[in-house]
Every structure is written in C-alpha cells, then in structure tokens.
Task: inverse folding
C-alpha cells in the first residue's frame, strides 16, 4: 500500500540545504511505497529560497527534487478555493507572536500546501508548529507531522 505525503517547502529546503534535521527528510524520501508530493507553488518557494540562500542553479534544484521521486502537482479548482478560505481563516485565528512581534498566519504558499494535502486526503509534513495549532483547533482537516 502506498502512503502519500505532501511536503511543505520548508521541509524540502531543510533537506536541500542540509539544515539541522535534514536526515528526517532523507528518511521520508528514502521510504519505499511513499508518494511524496510537492504542490507546484512549493516548487516556486523552494527554488526562490534556495537561490536566495546561495544555490544559484535552478535546473539542479529541480533535477534533485525529481531524482528523489518527488511529484510536483498543480492545484485543482477546489484546492485553490480552499486555499483562499485558509488565508482568511488564519487571519481570524492567528498563532503565536514571533520575535519580531508578528502573529503567525498562513502565507499563500502555506495555504496552497495545506489545501493540496486536504484535497489529496493525506498527511502534510512541515516545520511550522502553527499548522499543529490549526489542526488541533479543527480549522484544517489534515494530520500535520512536524519535526
């Protein structure tokens, strides 16, 4: 039986940039019978962030992701509409205040990643603990796996 997991951009970046806990992501990518999914907006975030942090070769980043079997998926209409709902919902239910005095909310990319996981009815892997809060409060219907 194949298990599907949607990865948040920060999760994949942890692996690409070999940041602390990158081995957790390596284990996910190496697990047989796991369909690893990255929403297309996540690919944009991964490439832009990796380039900003010093990795200048977009083609190599895309090739690396593809070589590990990560499937990039385009959003469907229902996922787009759900993402819009999630953006609104997060503004109404902000998370903890960060060190800059700003309360956590979802970005467009975050909302698309969660909406994709909901649409595919699978778990989402993220480093963002605010997503745990949204799940615990019943605002999102996917199981969030944080590390």
Result:
């Amino acid at each position: 039986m194949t298990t599907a997991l949607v990865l948040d951009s920060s999760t994949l970046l942890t692996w690409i940039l070999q940041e602390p806990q990158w081995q957790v992501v390596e284990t996910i990518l190496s697990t047989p019978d796991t369909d690893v999914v990255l929403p297309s907006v996540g690919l944009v975030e991964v490439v832009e962030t990796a380039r900003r942090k010093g990795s200048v070769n977009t083609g190599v980043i895309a090739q690396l992701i593809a070589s590990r079997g990560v499937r990039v998926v385009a959003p469907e209409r229902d996922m787009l509409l759900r993402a819009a709902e999630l953006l609104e919902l997060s503004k109404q239910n902000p998370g903890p205040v960060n060190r800059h005095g700003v309360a956590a909310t979802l970005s467009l990319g975050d909302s698309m990643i969660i909406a994709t996981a909901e649409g595919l009815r699978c778990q989402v892997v993220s480093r963002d603990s605010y997503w745990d809060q949204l799940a615990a409060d019943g605002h999102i219907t996917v199981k969030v796996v944080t590390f």
